[in-house]
């Protein structure tokens, strides 16, 4: 009866996990209302356009490193998340994208990510300018703006090893299109520089040549502006959608990631530069935090382009017209007209978010008699008074300009911070649901204390320490350090435990050897990939193997495949000579196909990893597509795993444990296929540690605790972190020819959680003889660890929702916690492991 009660209690606790996540997400990532429709020209008229054509040249991941040139340069602040789709949305709508756009950026779903129902600068340019719309480059633009461009060619960012072809496909259209006079807008989005960053970092030897290549394209465009009559009133906007950190990734909030370049280039600008500070000043040699030039918000691009090209500012824009460009209008009235349009437009956005925002007569009188004093007790009230002050300053002079910009910048600051309002009731409900699930799991786990008090205490202390860390941004960024050090403490613990339980000196020496070997393997695992924020890009084993020992890397890779193949052969589900022979041939064939696919994939994704010996493998005539090769491997693995189900029903079937070992090895081959070549040798180190754990004769509770620790260590060892920039999408499309969100989502999870999945499978095999009571205790401990982390993260996100790093540190951690709780715990720890263990 007690066992049945525990079972249903645990079912309730785990059922509450997705409930708590849904409740919390609905309050944490609420729908952001937008003004419907498209902006119309203001009734008082618009300032005349300065340009009649625009070329928007996006160099993906271009940091603010421009130091020379006669153009008008800025550093454009890109708020987190610094990934392509949200940044393009910011550039084209002028608003602050929702954090949920990160998921859409990964999903690349055309129907979910489109901007056809929002007012954007692209829509306004299409409606307001007479010429055609052109787009060449990253196909994200085509997903965001379907049926918008008249001539286009999209390029995929799938294989980030492509540094040249992906850009050549864009550049080959530039000169022919510059010679045409039937277009008004040309968008060029280059991916090569971003690819170099992902593959080799910002200090790669490929970086300077790529920047020179981009500079050459700018030269081609600028020379065409000088020589072609139809381009004499064209504006070139050179910008990066985001930057990159010192490891070459992006998605976070480091200075390198949030400081993309922004430069406006046109012969027209030279004639007006005398009236600005942009003429004749020295380009700085060094600058802190990549701010080489004055910083503007990336959303400021939207109203600036709208004003310069004479189209309405998009309805939901939070951007502020860049003041340096006011001098392009000779008339003070035109300048004030531009600012007035920007002021009224952003006031409409404020009124949508704050319906009580008003400018009544009493406040007008207060402003008139305030003599410049600050009015209003709240940010919204102060904004109301600033709006009134701007409205009262209608004379075309410097004072009026200052009044308008004071209101605009205050409004931008307020609305950018309010872009993600919270539903506190839903946050509290989700947190309480997670707390209840945690308490229920702890209550069931409590019954394990009398039988294994020390191990349970170790788990409790670990969970408490880890939960407390979630309230400190630096600890969240460097979470891997906690798991690395706590695992070292675990190695000491299991040694002391084995020594205390054995009075035999020989057994004590053996325990020392086992513990040291376990810790030594862990040391290699820790140093395999540098991760986190502080040490990202620092030397590690992977960089050593890539830079100087590619042959050693592939020797380790082949050894891993061979060990896996040998294990599958030894797990043959047949006892007869013929059956074993056929099984051996099948195992070798599938493993060989997997090796060929991995080499072919690496040749396309990371050719610098291929030693000359392995490079020749790709020249053997394997001309089949990678999609077909991947499907062959997956079918072979499915065939191997399928025998797990049916071998027990044959007269020559093997024992239950052997069948499970077969399934584990087939799973391992699948995980290897979904891992980067540089991470494949880690499976050998995991196997060494698992063998040592098996020799230590740990009980079921201690084995479960070891699983929790090793899952987290393995995740970070593969290069994972709590930053969105560490999500590995390189193998997310293996075997996929047409986009499928479910398949891509599953493969993405497997790619990034390959290490934890392996430990789940391995632990289930070693615990195949667990009783139902032991299995219940194990699930209780796993549930407690998961719900405790989820509760801590939810509490941290709620309490620190106004923290400076809430969207750059805590929110990404929450997304990772969802993956740990739903996919890893419910999907792997419970469903897969429970089925294998019993």
TrEMBL record:
Pathway assigned to this chain's UniProt record: Glycolipid biosynthesis; glycosylphosphatidylinositol-anchor biosynthesis
Tagged with keyword Endoplasmic reticulum: yes
Transmembrane segments: 12-31, 426-449, 456-476, 507-525, 581-601, 621-644, 779-802, 814-836
Protein name as it appears in the record: GPI ethanolamine phosphate transferase 2
Gene Ontology cellular component annotations, sorted alphabetically: endoplasmic reticulum membrane
MF annotations from Gene Ontology: CP2 mannose-ethanolamine phosphotransferase activity
Family: Belongs to the PIGG/PIGN/PIGO family. PIGG subfamily.
Membrane topology: Multi-pass membrane protein
Pfam families in the cross-refs: Phosphodiest, PIGO_PIGG
Main location: endoplasmic reticulum
Xref: SUPFAM superfamilies: Alkaline phosphatase-like
Domain of life: Eukaryota
Localization (cell): Endoplasmic reticulum membrane
Any one Gene Ontology BP term: GPI anchor biosynthetic process
Coiled coil: none
Keywords: Endoplasmic reticulum, Glycoprotein, GPI-anchor biosynthesis, Membrane, Transferase, Transmembrane, Transmembrane helix
Function in brief: Ethanolamine phosphate transferase involved in glycosylphosphatidylinositol-anchor biosynthesis. Transfers ethanolamine phosphate to the GPI second mannose.
């Amino acid at each position: 009866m007690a066992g049945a009660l525990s079972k249903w209690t645990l079912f309730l606790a785990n059922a509450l996990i997705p409930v708590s996540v849904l409740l919390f997400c609905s309050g944490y990532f609420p729908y952001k209302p937008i003004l419907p429709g498209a902006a119309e020209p203001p009734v008082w008229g618009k300032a005349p356009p300065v340009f009649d054509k625009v070329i928007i040249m996006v160099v993906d991941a271009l940091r603010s490193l421009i130091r020379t040139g006669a153009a008008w340069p800025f550093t454009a602040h890109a708020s987190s998340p610094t990934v392509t789709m949200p940044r393009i949305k910011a550039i084209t709508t002028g608003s602050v994208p929702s954090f949920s756009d990160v998921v859409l950026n990964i999903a690349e779903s055309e129907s979910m990510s489109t901007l056809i129902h929002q007012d954007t600068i692209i829509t306004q340019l299409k409606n307001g300018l007479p010429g055609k719309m052109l787009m060449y480059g990253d196909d994200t633009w085509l997903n965001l703006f379907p049926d918008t461009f008249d001539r286009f060619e999209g390029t995929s960012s799938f294989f980030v090893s492509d540094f040249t072809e992906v850009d050549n496909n864009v550049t080959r259209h530039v000169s022919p299109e510059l010679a045409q006079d039937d277009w008004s807008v040309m968008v060029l989005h280059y991916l090569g520089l971003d690819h170099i960053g992902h593959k080799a970092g910002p200090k790669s030897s490929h970086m300077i040549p790529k920047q020179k290549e981009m500079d050459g394209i700018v030269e081609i465009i600028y020379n065409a502006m000088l020589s072609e009559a139809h381009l004499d009133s064209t504006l070139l906007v050179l910008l990066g959608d985001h930057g990159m950190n010192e490891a070459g990734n992006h998605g976070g909030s480091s200075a390198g990631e949030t400081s993309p370049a922004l430069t406006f280039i046109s012969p027209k600008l030279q004639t007006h530069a005398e009236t600005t500070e942009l003429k004749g000043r020295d380009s700085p040699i060094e600058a802190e935090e990549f701010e080489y030039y004055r910083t503007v918000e990336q959303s400021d691009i939207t109203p600036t382009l709208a004003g310069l090209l004479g189209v309405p500012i998009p309805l939901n824009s939070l951007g502020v017209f860049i003041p340096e460009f006011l001098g392009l209008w000779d008339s003070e009235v035109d300048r004030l007209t531009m600012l007035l349009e920007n002021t009224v437009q952003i006031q409409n956005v404020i009124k949508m978010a704050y319906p009580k925002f008003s400018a009544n007569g009493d406040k007008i009188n207060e402003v008139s008699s305030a003599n410049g004093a600050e009015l209003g007790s709240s940010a919204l009230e102060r904004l109301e008074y600033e709006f009134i002050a701007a409205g009262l300053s209608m004379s075309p002079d410097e004072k009026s300009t200052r009044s308008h910009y004071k209101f605009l910048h205050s409004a931008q600051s307020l609305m950018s911070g309010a872009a993600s309002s919270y539903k506190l009731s839903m946050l509290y409900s989700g947190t309480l649901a997670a707390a209840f699930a945690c308490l229920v799991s702890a209550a069931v786990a409590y019954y394990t204390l009398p039988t294994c008090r020390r191990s349970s205490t170790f788990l409790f202390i670990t969970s408490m320490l880890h939960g407390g860390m979630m309230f400190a941004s630096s600890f969240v960024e460097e979470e891997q350090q906690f798991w690395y050090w706590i695992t070292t403490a675990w190695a000491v613990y299991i040694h002391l435990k084995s020594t205390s339980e054995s009075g035999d000196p020989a057994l004590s020496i053996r325990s020392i050897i086992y513990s040291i070997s376990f810790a030594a393997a862990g040391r290699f695992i820790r140093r395999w990939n540098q991760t986190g924020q502080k040490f990202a890009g620092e030397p590690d084993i992977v960089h050593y193997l890539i830079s100087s020992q590619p042959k050693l890397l592939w020797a380790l890779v082949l050894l891993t495949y061979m060990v896996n193949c040998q294990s599958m052969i030894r797990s043959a589900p047949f006892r007869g000579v013929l059956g074993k022979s056929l099984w051996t041939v099948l195992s070798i064939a599938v493993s060989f196909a997997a090796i060929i696919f991995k080499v072919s994939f690496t040749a396309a994704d990371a050719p610098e990893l291929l030693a000359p010996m392995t490079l020749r493998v790709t020249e053997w005539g394997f001309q089949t597509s990678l999609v077909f090769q991947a499907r062959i491997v997956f079918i072979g693995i499915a065939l191997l795993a399928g025998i797990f189900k049916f071998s027990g029903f044959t007269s020559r079937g093997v024992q239950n444990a052997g069948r499970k070992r077969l399934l584990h090895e087939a799973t391992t081959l699948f995980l290897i296929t979904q891992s980067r070549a540089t991470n494949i040798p880690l499976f050998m180190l995991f196997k060494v540690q698992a063998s040592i754990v098996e020799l230590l004769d740990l009980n079921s509770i201690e084995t479960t605790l070891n699983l929790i620790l090793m899952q987290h260590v393995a995740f970070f060892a593969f290069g994972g972190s709590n930053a969105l920039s560490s999500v590995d999408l390189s193998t997310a499309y293996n075997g996929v020819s047409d986009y499928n969100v479910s398949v891509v989502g599953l493969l993405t999870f497997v790619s990034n959680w390959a290490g934890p999945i392996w430990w789940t499978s391995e632990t289930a095999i070693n615990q195949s003889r667990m009783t139902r009571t032991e299995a219940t205790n194990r699930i209780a401990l796993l549930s407690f660890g998961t719900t405790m982390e989820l509760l801590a993260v939810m509490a941290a996100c709620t309490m620190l929702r106004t923290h400076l790093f809430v969207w750059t540190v805590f929110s990404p951690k929450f997304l990772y916690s969802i993956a740990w709780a739903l996919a890893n715990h419910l999907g792997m720890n419970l469903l897969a492991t429970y089925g294998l263990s019993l």
